Task: structure prediction
Amino acid sequence: MAASGHSTTGRLSMRLSLIQMNSADEPAANVAKAEGLIDEAVEAERPDLVVLPEFFNTIYFAQHRDYAYMDLAEPEKGPTTTAMRAKAREHGVHLVSTIYEEESAGVYYDTAMLIDREGEIVGKYRKAQPAAVRSLEKIYFRYGSRFPVFEVDGWRVGFIVCYDTFFPESARCVTLNGAELIVVPFASPHQVLWRDVIRTRAFENGAYFAPCNKVGSEDDWTFGGQSMIVDPLGEVLAEADDVSERIVSASISREAVREARRRYPMQRDRRPDLYRPICTPTEDLTPAG
Result:
């Protein structure tokens, strides 16, 4: 269920595992690979929360312009989510599974699903900024418009997805809605200033930031990996390389969030009364030059 307010109850620590993986053409094979990697993570790391990359069950289809790829979309009760719910229930872990979701005929989203220890879907985040720089996401799915925060073992956990990260307003909205941990499923090639951007998002929000990326080649794209877990002061706790499938794990502490926000009280010192240009329609802005 969605978290409310800023309660300090709940567990003080959490074990987090990110699964950095490559995907192939066959969704069923990708799901089977993910299941095996989840088994491996649970056996080795005993996580409370396991995160999979964006579109882990398919190749990154938005590198192509071909409406046949819409057939990859699955409803909530489709085979991928059914398998992930069963795996969460089997191991008694929380799981984040991000798929190309079909809500209804012709209506598709890039959706991060939060599955609880009993295998129930307890929340969804739909990508707010579909990418259209090198990719063609905007022709495949519509944007979401909410930044919900959910309770996971007493922690307040929010989500953004991939390209959302490069809009600081997205992470800030999740933080203002109460997030202590921001989980970020990714399907991204190498990015300029990747490590610096990720560390900055964590620091400026006083929250743990956990991008989980794809790695390796899928058709014409090669993904950048470097999945990592970053603490609220911008320190990298655990990190994968940019070439290999990996499980990245770390224990995180709610006390670290509290101390970071006491040391750097950006939420206290915000001036939303000054930020009108951020919410002004583009047509109403005065262009530079």
Notes: The chain has one domain: 13-284. The chain is about 25% helix and 30% strand. Confidence is low (pLDDT under 50) at residues 4-8.
